[in-house]
Amino acid sequence: MKIMVLGGDGFCGWPTSLHLSEAGHEVLIVDNLSRRQIDVLLEVESLTPIAPLSERIATWAQVSGRTIGFELLDIAHDYDRLLQVLKEFAPDTVVHFAEQRAAPYSMKSPKTKRYTVDNNVSGTHNLMCAIVEAGLDTHVIHLGTMGVYGYGWSGTAPIPEGYLEVRVDTPEGDLAREILHPANPGSVYHMTKTLDQLIFAFYAKNDGVRVTDLHQGIVWGTQTPQTQRHPRLINRFDYDGDYGTVLNRFLMQAAIGYPLTVHGSGGQTRAFIHIRDTVRCIELACLNPPRSGDRPTIFNQVTETFRVIDLAKLIADITDTPIEHLENPRVEADENDLIVENRQFLELGLEPTTLSQGLLEEVQEIARKFVERVDASKIPASSKWRVAKP
Fold this sequence. Notes:
Helix 6 runs parallel beside helix 7 and helix 8 packs parallel to helix 10. The protein contains twelve helices and 14 strands. It is globular, with a radius of gyration of 21 Å. By secondary structure, the protein is an alpha/beta fold. The longest helix has 25 residues, at 110-134. The chain has a seven-stranded parallel sheet, with helices on both faces. The protein has a three-stranded mixed sheet with strand order 9-11-13. A two-stranded antiparallel ribbon has the order 6-7. The protein starts with a strand and ends in a 21-residue tail after the last helix. It has one domain (2-238, 274-302, 342-353): Rossmann fold (3-Layer(aba) Sandwich).
């Protein structure tokens, strides 16, 4: 299978590219390297040292005997080049990671808000428009987020996978329909993912583009079997207040003796998935595309749910690290329930990687190994959801 991975240099994109390459697929990475540029703007680097992409790809060829192509391309702003690359490569599948992925960064300033919308929404629409213009029957797999649902859903009923059955009372009786689950974004980043849903729904209906949208939970862990094969293949490990995901941040903080920072009560329940399962889910989606004319297939790409405070207590007990409660910079409920339906991937054969002592230690060991690269001043969250009024 010919697979184009947009954003293939990133935290999820790089291990996915390697996983698909090792599985025997022809992989082409398309990336504008913007995540590396954001590191420069934020004056913080990945905890793990990241080699230039050309070195990463060359190293993969040395250890695996497989080649991965690369096109330096900004899909949000160079439509003509995107169209040309699609025509030349003619991918069976496009895996779309090419979006600014951090909610805190999207709320950092008016500039980052506008950048997130410009990059994410324009990139997604350019991709769909170009596939239609190129006349390709390409399956688009998009990395969405559980955050499109928001966190106001409570009770014992699980969040369904993308669609909600509704009944409307009419003079002729109840009218039953399935609609996209009502969107409830909690940040500009999450808002762009809800807009993506509408773009996909339109192009699936109007042009028959085959789309799989993966509403993924918070990713933790760093390494996959492929990224472990050589130091220059190592994956990103973000720990700063904008890009560090909560469990990875806790494990890094424990490794350096920094208090575990819990915002608010920590009663927020979130969905989680290990990076190893992320790449497996992408491959399962590649191998199980919808048919032309189908509405977008939506999977909830999650394996477990935890309250933030429970994760903090777990890490604190294991590592004897104190917990520090800080003001919550987000506009959200202090506590929420979260029950998530995820049976589709399980039925396709996913064997979930669940939270374990061994994997927690594995991530902590990476943090200890590169402890000299930590800039503790970047750990606190600095982005605020509401601007203080004068």
